[in-house]
Each structure stands twice: as structure tokens, then as C-alpha cells.
């Protein structure tokens, strides 16, 4: 199976390796232009549809939406269908996702006629256990995230000029200064966060107004949804991301750091 997915990625991006960070690609002039554009979006309150149109007009066909099937990403699938349907979608299948997450994928496929590209780690869970020992997420969660999320993301973004995420400033202190558009030094391309200024209420207002399919785990106390071994429901009064890597200082998987 991993070989089949690699072939799909090759056809879609032209490469399965991480993008080279050459001086030309380091984006210094573009960084300044993006900073100015970000300030313009900020003055206008960060209109999400406008951010999407900007990215679509400038970077299509070399732009993709990273979808993790939380409410924000489901919302963006709906929004793309309205303003930028040509933008491709992919998801990182860590092979440790909740059954409800896979079910949400199928609902989005049926509703919008999209077929998000599945991106998998180099090793399946059993092979990883043979190499690093069982339940790596319990002993070295950062390494597990690196193997099952960060490395696959690099392959997914290879050959792209921009990617779109559903992160919001309100989600966590680590995201409090998230820009609408910026140069992503870590992955070597432009990063767009159309929902950066949205509140939780904004998200659910849109979801309900447009009848967007969403992950049912949100109705069971999961405001943030990742892999099942590292995600639990949040108790009343807890921080929304306290259910991720509970009991550890870890708050991010490495995709947005």
C-alpha cells in the first residue's frame, strides 16, 4: 500500500522528496510582499473568502488544502467549493485516525464530489513498532509525529508553491499570531490561514448555516481531533487543546511550529 500511495504522490506533485530550499526559493522578495498583503487582510478583518481567492488566483495549480477533518477544515472544503473549487485537497493518514474521522472523509467526498489525496507514512504502524518499539507515541510522541505527520507532509508539499490550513489564532497560544498569508520557512512555500481571525463561534455559525458535514467527535467533547492514542475528550472548563497529548507539555505535532 505505501508504494501505491507514493506513486499517486509522484503523479500529483512530480516528486516524493522534500522541496529544496534554494536561495531562489527562499522567498525574500515574496516574503515582503506577503507581509504587505497580510497587513491588508488584517485591516479588513481577515475575510476568509478573500484570502482563498488571493491564494487561488496567485498559486493555482500549485496550491493545496491540508485537511484533517476537524470543523475548520470541513468548513474550508465547503468554502473552496464556492470560491476556488480547482484547489486540490490532501490528508495525512497516520493510520491512527478515529473511525469517525474516516467517516467524515467519506461524507465530504459524497457531499462535494472531492477526492482528497491520501498521504501515508513510510512505515505502517506494525513496521514502525518493529523499528522503534511498540506504542512509540507513548514513549517518544515527538518522534512519532515526525514519522507519521511531518515527513509525509513534506512529501505532500513537494512541488507546491502554497498550502492552506485551518488554523486559528484562538486555538492555542502557539497560534495566537498566525498570519493570513506568510512565507513558511519550515516547508519552503507560502502558507495561508484563511480562518486565522475566526472565533469558535464563527466556525460553528458557518458550519450550521451551510449544513457542512463535520466530525461527530466534536459533539462528544473533542474540540481538537488527532490520532486516537493521543487524543481524549475535554472536560468542562479545560483548555480546548488539553485533550491532545494529555499530561504532557507537548501541544503541537510539528506541522505548524
Can you tag this structure with a few keywords?
9 helices, disordered N terminus, 6-stranded mixed beta sheet, 6 strands, Rossmann fold, alpha/beta, 257 residues
Characterization of this structure:
This protein is α/β, with parallel strands linked by helices and 257 residues long. It has one domain (2-230): Rossmann fold. Helix content is 41%, strand content 9%. The protein has a six-stranded mixed sheet with strand order 3-2-1-4-6-5, sandwiched between helices. Helix 4 links the parallel strand 1 (63-66) and strand 2 (88-92). The longest helix has 17 residues, at 141-157. It starts with a helix and ends in a 48-residue tail after the last helix. The model is unreliable at 1-24 (pLDDT under 50).
Quick structural summary:
The protein is α/β, with parallel strands linked by helices and 257 residues long. It has helices at residues 2-13, 28-43, 48-59, 71-83, 99-112, 125-132, 136-139, 141-157, 200-209; strands at 63-66, 88-92, 117-119, 162-164, 181-184, 189-192. It is built from 9 helices and 6 strands.
How would the blueprint of this fold be written?
Layout: H1 2-13, H2 28-43, H3 48-59, E1 63-66, H4 71-83, E2 88-92, H5 99-112, E3 117-119, H6 125-132, H7 136-139, H8 141-157, E4 162-164, E5 181-184, E6 189-192, H9 200-209
> In CATH, what is the homologous superfamily?
HUPs
> Which sheet architecture does the biggest sheet show?
6 strands, mixed
Instruction: Examine the coordinates and then state which fold CATH places here, giving the name of the CATH topology.
Output: Rossmann fold
Give the SSE order as H and E letters.
HHHEHEHEHHHEEEH
Q: Strand percentage, roughly? A: 5-15%
The best one-word shape is globular
Strand order of the largest sheet: 3-2-1-4-6-5
Number of individual domains = 1
Number of strands: 6
Q: Tell me the radius of gyration.
A: 18 Å
Q: Structural class of the helix and strand makeup?
A: alpha/beta
Question: Which CATH class applies here?
Answer: Alpha Beta
The number of helical runs is: 9
Low-confidence stretches: 1-24
State the helicity in percent bands.
40-55%
CATH architecture: 3-Layer(aba) Sandwich
User: What integer is the average pLDDT?
Assistant: 86
End-to-end gap? 30 Å
